[in-house]
Structure formats: C-alpha cells, structure tokens
Amino acid sequence: MLRAPSGSDGWVVEPGVEGIMLRRYPGGYRRWQAASVRGRSLVSHVGGPGPCGRYGRIVAVIRVGFTRSIKDDYEAIVLLDVESGDTIEFQRSLTHDPQDVRFGMDTYAIVRGGAAVHYGGLVRFDVRGYVLALELDPEAAEVLELPDLLELTVDGAAAEIIEQHLPRILAPTR
Q: Is the pLDDT of residue 122 over 80?
C-alpha cells in the first residue's frame, strides 16, 4: 500500500494499484492512478487536485529503455509514460567538439516529450527499491514543465538499466 507524503491530503492507494501520478496543469495538479495488469502499465485519471507539498510529486509506473549509437554519436536513457506517450530522456553525446564546449553543450541534456530541452539541471537521482527519485534544479523544472521532485515507480529491470547507465550519462565530460 502506498501512502501520501507527510503534509499532503492523506490519499491512500489500495492494494493492487502501483502508484499515483500528479500532472501539473494551469491552476494546480490533477491526480492520476497508475496500475499494472498482466505486466502492462495502465494510467487512468481519478480526478481532483492531488496532493503536493513543497515539491510537486509525480509517482508513476513507467517503462525505461537505453540506447547507444556510435553512428549517431549519442547514448540515452528514455523514461516512458505508456498511457500518455510522454517521455523524459537523458541524452549525452559520445564526443564533443570545441563549439559544444563554447556553448555549454558538452554535458548531458534532459529532453521532455522530444521538444523541451535543458542542458544539465539534474540535482540528484536515487534508486531505492522500485522508486526512482529525480530532483531538478528550478530552471530545468521550469523549462521542462515538471515539478522539482519526481518519484517514478520502476520495475527491477528498469532500476538496473538506470543504475548501470545514468551515472555515465550524467558524468562530467570536461
């Protein structure tokens, strides 16, 4: 059973439901319910303003993938919300030229939905059990239209992918 963070409105997720996801909309947050049926992630709206304390929180069941292309000179971890198709990608070029360095693009990029891009901006990440916590700096959160703190429910295989590849993608290149 998943319980609300302290200071929230006290919502409780019933057994069988794997998470709660909050989406930011004009005027506040809406609560969505995430569940898994036969290993397939499902997300459905359960209405109303959802709980949020100092940080907006997104807690969701997601899918995670990793790709590396020598030909295209990049590697990335992709976090996918199956229901909405929304993605958060952590991308890094495998090589950097002097222009990348000059413009501050010699680091990782966070890409949301294939459109909003911010270079750097992840304050910390942590995988504990089946929860991936991502803390963004205020500028990255604003550009990507995400809360400062995201908590995402991942399965064991996804946690392994994240732990194996994300530290390398985020590592300084200088």
A: yes
